[in-house]
Structures are given as structure tokens and as C-alpha cells.
Design brief:
- The protein has 156 residues and is mainly alpha-helical.
- It is built from six helices and two strands.
- Strands 1-2 form a two-stranded antiparallel sheet.
- A hairpin with a 2-residue loop joins strand 1 and strand 2.
């Protein structure tokens, strides 16, 4: 089974087998699955689910999806560093997290304030706050914890 087939099966399980005709991005099970995974603190899975859409788009949404994927990637780094702060690899994930937070913000900026029922402007504030905390602490303080991890929601 290919990665695409595994992701499709995963999304079908998340959505209870629901399918979308693809005409409205905000109704896509892959798009909605991103937010469901994010809110379950499954950032790596959120990345993979939305990557499935991103790799297939030729529209202006490519950078929108890319920014959301980069945001999830940043939170993968933050989560791994939080879980294993002294690990040789995971302990050094704060700099890549900050880089991805900034890249995500850059890619999402043209889509403010709202795109596909998502409050991009509010997400930008969240990304900036996390990046600033990392910078202010000179990459010594991880602003993420499972107890107060941010959640994302669609506007409708």
C-alpha cells in the first residue's frame, strides 16, 4: 500500500467514510482531517493529511496548504523537543521549529484574514507568538506543552 493510499484510508476513518466531491476545499475530508489531527496533537499526521491535498493542487491554494503544513511541521518539532528535551536529536528541534513557524507565516500572509473557513489572521498571531517566545528565550524555552496546546477550528 502506498503512502497516498494509507493517508486516504486514515482520512476515511477520521471522517467516518465521508467523501467530498472536491468542489469546496473547506468540506474536503483531507482539509478537515488536518484540523482534527492538529486538535488531537497529531501534528505529523496533520502534515501528512494536508500534504495529500497540497501535492495535487495547481491553484493559488498551494502556498496556503504549504503554510498550514509548515505550521504543523513546526509543532512536530516543538512536541518532540518537549517529550525528549535531552535527546541528541530531539533536544535540538527548537531552531527548526522557529524557522518553520516563520516560513508558515510568510506563506500564509497573502491569505489573510480568512481562507476556506479558516481564520488565517488568528493563526498568524499564534505562529508569531510561538516564534517570538523561542527568539526571546534564545531557543531555551519551548512554548509548547500538551496541557495548553493550541487548537484550531473552522469558521463554519
Amino acid at each position: 500500500m502506498s503512502k497516498g493510499e494509507r493517508i486516504t484510508r486514515f482520512v476515511e476513518e477520521l471522517a467516518g467514510g465521508a467523501h467530498s466531491d472536491g468542489s469546496e476545499v473547506s468540506q474536503s475530508p483531507f482539509y478537515r482531517g488536518y484540523f482534527q489531527c492538529w486538535n488531537a496533537q497529531q501534528y505529523y499526521e496533520a502534515h501528512d493529511v494536508l500534504e495529500h491535498l497540497w501535492l495535487r493542487t495547481t491553484s493559488a491554494d498551494a502556498n496556503f496548504f504549504k503554510g498550514l503544513i509548515q505550521g504543523a511541521g513546526a509543532f512536530v518539532h516543538l512536541q518532540k523537543q518537549f517529550q525528549h528535551p535531552t535527546h541528541a536529536k530531539h533536544g535540538r528541534r527548537l531552531a527548526p521549529a522557529r524557522r518553520l513557524l516563520r516560513l508558515a507565516a510568510r506563506n500564509l500572509a497573502p491569505f489573510e484574514p480568512v481562507r476556506h473557513a479558516f481564520d488565517v489572521a488568528a493563526f498568524q498571531i499564534l505562529l508569531a507568538r510561538y516564534a517570538q517566545t523561542l527568539s526571546d528565550s534564545e531557543l531555551r524555552i519551548n512554548p509548547w506543552s500538551p496541557d495548553d496546546a493550541p487548537t484550531l477550528s473552522l469558521l463554519h
